[in-house]
Amino acid sequence: MYLQRALKLPKTSFFLLGPRGTGKSTWLRHVLPDARWFDLLSEELYHRLMGAPGAFAGELRALPNGSWVVVDEIQRLPSLLNEVHRFIEEKRLRFALCGSSARKLKRAGVNLLGGRAPRRAMHPFLPGEIGPSFDLPGALRHGLLPMAWAADDKDECLKAYSHLYLKEEIQAEALVRNLPGFVRFLPLAALLHSQVVNVANLAREAGVARTTVSGHMEILEETLLCFRLPAYEARLRVRERKLPKWYWCDPGIARAMKGVSGPVAPEERGALFEGLVAQTIRAYRDYRRACDEFFYWAPGSGVGVEVDFLLVRDGRFAAIEVKSGKAFSDGWCKGLRAIASLAGLRRRLAVYPEGPVMRTEDGIDVLPFVEFARLLEENRLWP
To answer: What kind of fold does domain 14-121 have according to CATH?
Structure first.
């Protein structure tokens, strides 16, 4: 069964990037059923085009002007971007350039296209895409990666996904010199989910060079599985921390990389739920411009005073605190009250798993997760 995705098809050529298993190819086949398709996962096609680059140009030359062309797994042959550039100019062909790694594209120089192909992102499923069958406990346990969501044995699928990632993204592309060291690093990186990360401390604990840890984390970001959330650094009356927080793009992937399956343990729940909210914000930033960028806010003084997410759009701010408790507590609002004097702050929200919509006396909105996601989907966050 095909689920309608929130991503809209651009009218011009574009790069479509996202982790493996997010449904990029499925979406492209749905929205561009008549496109000329080049699937570089096909070893036959890959070796043919690598051995005879002119064959790609020959096929493009035969297409009618303005046709759509899909190149799947473009990072495997980034040299094709030279021809892509040429045929955008000469025949006004429109290209959907699909990939699961930004690393090789950066090295090859995506600027070859001179801004003619903006970047779009495909993320794991969102509550609004799944609809009434969305299950929050299931999302925290197995995540929302489409290939895992549709699997009969979700735990086994996620376990296989972690091996597929190592085989096809890391080993096949020779992204690391020491594969066993990277394999040992993955569970450690998974333990950092939703935490402030200090690379120097992490390297010391792991007993490896700081440059090695930095390189491994960059690989996880550039293969689109993880992202860092910076601290907001405006000149408030107190000094903000400057270390970023670390998130995986999906709770199921984070658990699989950690080697954990089965029901979610109480000690996991908070980090997994915060990470799910972070990823939901990130997805709707890309799909709906829910914000221009977002941060976390944590003053350097005042232990326990922080706000999980500070969204920025057009110079306005929305502060969001995430709590995994079952019933609202006024103590959840400590950070939201501490940030109330921030110039440009338009809204404060507390997001929790399930329960009624509420509002405190001082104007803090309290929303269950599904309602918060709907707010982003419908672009109603900003008053």
So the answer is: Rossmann fold (3.40.50)
